[in-house]
């Protein structure tokens, strides 16, 4: 789709700010929620989870809240989102306790169990893992995610051999699979997980990909709206 050809939602990508602002207005209209109620964070590939600060019902995008890689809210009408262009986005819904969360899980965050930390944050507030509803993706898939042998071995040791595919001298990492295994380990039910299988890197017509485009590309916003 080109670096910024369609609905880029990344503010630090080199795109024209006015165009990105316009895209956020389109996003808010499609979501049916005030843009000022969207909470985001400065993503740092760590394992910190924070509670979203409620926003007003304005039409202005708020600054990123703090450094973290997951955020949650229990406030009606608020929405939380994470930015991706290859990393795995994870959206969590606790239908009983009425919490929602958004998680950014790159390889560092996946190795640091950021998805587990987000689930634990909801469990600490009464959520039951087996009741959670989860959406995973879009992300780069193992077909395009070549990593070092050292990283592949670390992931195979931590998550199991199924997350690594060896092809000749190359090692390919199935990052979404590692995230799903993390969630299953915590008690999230497979039928409650909707995992997108498309690959960001393969599908240039629909997805941005940092790796495919050598860093010059847009960003998706993966969001969940608190509306019970």
UniProtKB/TrEMBL annotation:
Claim: Metal-binding is one of the keywords in the record: yes
UniProt entry tagged with the keyword Transmembrane: no
Listed GO MF terms: copper ion binding; hydrolase activity; S-methyl-5-thioadenosine phosphorylase activity
Recorded catalytic activity of this chain's protein: adenosine + phosphate = alpha-D-ribose 1-phosphate + adenine; S-methyl-5'-thioadenosine + phosphate = 5-(methylsulfanyl)-alpha-D-ribose 1-phosphate + adenine; adenosine + H2O + H(+) = inosine + NH4(+); inosine + phosphate = alpha-D-ribose 1-phosphate + hypoxanthine
Superkingdom field: Bacteria
UniProt keyword list: Hydrolase, Metal-binding, Transferase, Zinc
Cited InterPro entries: Cu_polyphenol_OxRdtase, Cu_polyphenol_OxRdtase_sf, Cytotoxic_necrot_fac-like_cat
Alphabetized Gene3D superfamilies for the sequence: CNF1/YfiH-like putative cysteine hydrolases (3.60.140.10)
Family from the record: Belongs to the purine nucleoside phosphorylase YfiH/LACC1 family.
Full protein name: Purine nucleoside phosphorylase
């Amino acid at each position: 789709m080109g670096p910024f050809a369609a609905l880029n939602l990344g503010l630090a990508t080199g795109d024209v700010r006015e165009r990105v602002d316009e895209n956020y207005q389109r996003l808010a209209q499609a979501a049916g929620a005030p843009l000022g109620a969207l909470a985001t964070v400065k993503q740092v590939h760590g394992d910190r989870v924070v509670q979203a600060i409620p926003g007003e019902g304005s039409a202005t995008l708020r600054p990123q809240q703090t450094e973290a890689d997951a955020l949650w809210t229990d406030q009606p009408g608020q929405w939380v989102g994470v930015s991706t262009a290859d990393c795995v986005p994870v959206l969590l819904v606790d239908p009983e306790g009425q919490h929602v969360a958004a998680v950014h899980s790159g390889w560092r965050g996946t190795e640091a169990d950021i998805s587990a930390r987000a689930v634990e944050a909801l469990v600490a507030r009464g959520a039951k893992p087996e009741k959670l509803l989860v959406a995973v993706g879009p992300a780069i898939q193992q077909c395009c995610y070549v990593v070092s042998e050292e990283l592949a071995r670390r992931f195979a040791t931590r998550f199991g051999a199924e997350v690594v595919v060896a092809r000749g001298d190359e090692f390919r990492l199935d990052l979404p699979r590692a995230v799903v295994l993390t969630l299953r380990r915590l008690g999230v039910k497979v039928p409650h997980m909707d995992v997108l299988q498309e690959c960001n890197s393969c599908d240039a017509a629909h997805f941005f990909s940092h790796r495919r485009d050598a860093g010059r590309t847009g960003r998706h916003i993966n969001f969940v709206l608190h509306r019970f």
